[in-house]
Amino acid sequence: MTNFVIRRIGLAAIQLVIVATIVFLLIRLIPGDAARAVLGENATDDQVAAMRSTMGLDEAFPIQFFNYWKNLLTGDLGVSLISGRPVAADLIVRFGNSLEIIVLAILVSIVVGVVLGRIAAIRNDRALDHIITGGSVLGISLPVFVTGTLLLLVFSVWLPILPPQRYVGFFSDPLGHLQLIILPVLALAATSTAVIMRMTRSAMLETLSADFVRTVRAKGVIERKVITYHALRNALVPVVSITSVELATLIGSTVLIETIFGWPGMSSMLMQAVTDRDYPVIQAVVLSASVFVIIVNLVADLVIRLLDPRTESF
Amino acid sequence: MADNLALASTEIVEKTGPVSRGIVRRLVKNPRTCISGAFFIIIVLVVLIGPLIYPITYREQVGIPLSQDGLLGTDDFGRDVLARLIIATRTSMLVAVGAVIIALLAGVGLGLLAGFLGGWTSTIIMRGSDILLSFPAVILAIAAVAILGPDLINVVLVIGVLYVPRFTRVVYAQSVAIRSAQYVDAERVNGTSTASIISRTVLPNVMSTVIVQASLSLSFAIQVEAGLSFLGLGAQPPLASLGTMISSGRDFLEVQPTMLIYPSLLLIAIVLAVNVLGDGLRDVLDPRRAFAR
Question: For B148, what's the count of Cα atoms within 13 Å in the CB-facing half-sphere?
């Protein structure tokens, strides 16, 4: 186990180094001159030269690379080209806000998805199963921004239960904050719930027909215990692995959801940076989202290994 | 995990032979697959000949803004919504199909290369795929399109490249298994060239997985294109895409909700049809499921 943990963490570290290197190369791939791209066509040569120096593009390539790593390792993600503020300070707040809706959405998806998946597996091929599976096909076919906009139409315009309002922090107005968070979390959770439900159902069906479950039943264990302690527990491995995939998808979906609901997370920062060609901010967002995905995958692999010591992944 | 599953299904293909006979017959048996198949064919027809069936010239297309002129009304510029939906479907489908074709060709090629050459080639290709998969797709797509410039061709390229690893992985897993199969050894002994083994023995065996993967990727690609266009990074006005139509419908939620509802329902219906069709194809093409019935 220790050996596995060390090797798996080592792999994640290598992934981090490569991902960070690709993010470094990203703005150096801009066709033409990155500094001119930021300033626009009308900038004078002096302005472009000054911008090159601000962006650190006037140094030799290896020195640029060295400086990038030196800054990264000291937690310095550079300075916004537009506001002049350090990117890291803003990003931490924004990333926290994004994380809030991502974590809530995945918790909702896991609870609802596993419960529905369990019901559908037990009621295999009966009416309830068909209703749940049918609903899940619809669920995975809902593009997240469509769910978001339609929820907004229904709950803010047609039935003004959750009217659009300005963002308020949890600590200044807990109730107002909760009202704000309901729709984005629902929109994000719709698809993940369907995916997790499908995985739970098929994994449970597989374990329910396994030899060891037959043995457990033959021993006279009551059905409820068979399902909860034996079948569901063994079905969890693929569920954990699909949950990590969903978490990685959610961080992309939040960009759309935050734009729709005006949630002050990472995405408005990213979209503003895209409009302004604020490359340090774009780099920082891509890097932190990728770090998030790498860590999620690492944790998922470790959890799977704990649940099922036989797995020899990677 | 996925690799193991893919390996397991190859073994069964080897034991039972290719399952090409009766695919259509079994596909048609399922009513859900039938309905979504029919809808998908309609969509393909709309893409191919839509503007011929519902022809609207630029002058005729303009009416009173936000009115009920025409079958589905007009948008904020007074343009006929049905005509724009047809163009939007065309834009979205062409971008998605283009992206999937790029991903499929590159992914299958790289997967076969990695599976058959082994050694360093395979390490580089497969680790490269892993790295690409550890970027969140939508965020990387936004960044890449931002850097390359918002343009549909860039969207096709970016989605295409992001989906290459999905094909590479499944094809690699299968071709490794097939490479060491005894019938491939037999062909080698007979003096069949590697190119011929790949094209005549391996490709047909890998095809069913590739088709299923393609249908899954198509559904994702439609959604990613719509999402990027929604954010203003894909189709640029005045060109219509389902994403841009939904985005502009958002501004008129209270005045004319149909402007949002029509493109949203159409997008959901297309993705739903592709997903149900994909599920049906998987049931029919996946030998384990097919023979379990």
Answer: 17
